[in-house]
Amino acid sequence: MKADPLQEGRYLAIALLGGVALVWSTPLLWMIIAAFRPDSGDALNMAALWPNFRPTLANFRDALQSADFARLYVNTVIVCGGILAVQLVTVTLAGFAFARLKFPGQGVLFYAFLLQLMIVPVVLIVPNLVTITHLGLYDTLPGVMAPYFASAFGTFLMRQCFRTIPRDFEEAALVEGASWGQVIWRVLIPLARPGMVAFAIVSVCAHWNEFLWPLMVISKPSHQTLTVGLASFTQGAEGGSQWGVIAAGTFLVAAPLMIAFALFQRQFVNSFLFSGVK
Amino acid sequence: MIHWKTLAAAGALAFGLGQTAQSAQAATNIELYFPVPVQGKLANKMKSLMEAFNKAHPDIDATAVYTGSYDETNLKTRAAIRAGNPPAAVIMSANFILEYQINNEIQPLDPMIKADGMTDKSFMDQYWQALHGNAEFAGHVWAVPFQNSTPLLYLNVKAFKEAGLNPDNPPQTWAEWADAAKKLTKRDGNSVSQYGLMMPGNYDYLGWIVSALDMSNGGQYYNTDFGGEVYYDQPSMLGAVRFMHNLVFKDKVMPQGVTNAKDVSTSFFAGKAAMVVLSTGALSFVRDNMKDNFRVAFLPGHLRHAVAIGGASLMMPKGLSPAKQEAAWTLIKWLTSPKVAGEWSRFTGYFAPNKGAYDLPEMKDFMAQHPNAQVALKQLAYAHPWFATYNTVAVRKALEDQVQAVLSGNETPEKAVKAAQAKADQLMAPYVAQTALKLPD
After folding, report:
1. CB nearest to A237's CB, from B37, B41, B284
2. Interface pTM (ipTM) of the complex?
3. How far is the CA of B416 from the CAs of A66, A96, B411, B413, B423, in angstroms?
């Protein structure tokens, strides 16, 4: 019997995808293997992907001793959660305004909003820091969060999301005597949930991993976030580095996001599919 | 040498005098920004130093604030100053200090030195001569050296013996250096199993090494008295860049392209590079990771022996309250005192800038046990200040980009130094226009 060309194409696609997946997962694999490898003082084998079969927790002990991880976790969760909570309110309302309300200069204003995406964050460090200082938020967690309370990306995403919802739903609700607030809260938001979840993932990942801005705002060690705390014991320029401890520390920083993704994988993938974010 | 306790007491007294209006009981809160340029539990070490300081000075509450790499520390310090929240003291890359002086953002230290009953000269004489240029210029003392390094030549003893060379007699001149590198290079047909020589080609490191080669070739690299001039398009620099080009393309004893510092140290550990150029600050790291015997030597010279200093100094931004200024000065003096500087040096591998550190018994023991650290210290006699200009980082990169192109085989040394000079001149033009070319009407 002749081989089914469709079937052959399928195998090829799987092989290709497998290859790409391997390339993408290599850093992660290395991190996990290196984190559990005993420190032999052997910088040469640090790049090996072959695990050592006498795994050790010594690297984790060193990493945990090097920084106050409990506090770093709490601070990072407060920052990411606080930013997201405010963002969800602002981007939903702004997205709704751009999607549904008619007002003069709407188009220009929307593109001006999108222009923010083009600005490199580094050039805003000094002006933002001056503003934060005037507000009395220097060296505080709200100071880390404040510049992100409005999000151009989120507004754009929610606008697109609201536009895919047929107007009939809103009109029906209005006919039933609902106010605009009720329309947003009871009709649009439930329908736009996949978009909000997708935005939440992007937002939390971005702020969880952010380094430069928290480094600029925060001075007190007790206000540091995970990335800054990690860098404080792993960075090195003139010498080499202790790879095991770096890997263990990175593992501790990345673990909550990885676990969350593993648990809610299906919901995440679904909301990305619905919202069209890739 | 004045003991640190005396200095601290003087600082505390002066602090007390400046504090008449406020309650004398409350401790002054100050912040020290510190970058992490070496590996290890440096952040923890800094924390324990701060605890010791605060215990000895109940009237001061100092916090060590980790601020990233040298470049990030620079960024954060500048942003904090502009936002009106200057830290009391910063451990700043020594060649960035000039820009703070140009921008008028740094506190000259002379008044405090004078209040301690010292002159600028007697104060700076506590530190190695080579460190003065980056700390004392334009008529004032701006910074106090804290941790310093120079580039060193590291040799694999076994590879030297196998090649019939004597590791006790390391190459002294460029001719001997190139010759040894040829003998140390092992080839299998077209591939090289052991390179004779490797040096880091990544940003920052490369500029530092090229400046050492340029200075060894009689060059000056930059104008030590005016931040608007560099000497890239000069015979001394051209010779240095040609020498690097020859090592890669004529003698083929150094790999082509840009090798970063971590690859250089890893190749040295693996026996894939018989000689490497690395910082004295990497000494502890190499000692911990090198299985074969190794030795360090002066960087070979051509017209003379010369290297540039690297490392960081303590500086104090402008705009601090008198109380904070006094507290910061007390902290700076404590951190740079012989005892603390020596402890930091043994922990990190940097040499201690304060000469007095080497008179202490614990330091004498350490030096006796570590002959390589002695070589690093002796090379200081041949060290020059680190390049510092207006817009230092960009001006440095103008040269580094071109030298990287030469090492990759995309540019000739002649064109490279010309292009680097043109770019650097363009970068410094605004400053030059405001200073050297701003003439009376």
Report:
1. B37
2. 0.74
3. 45, 56, 6, 5, 11
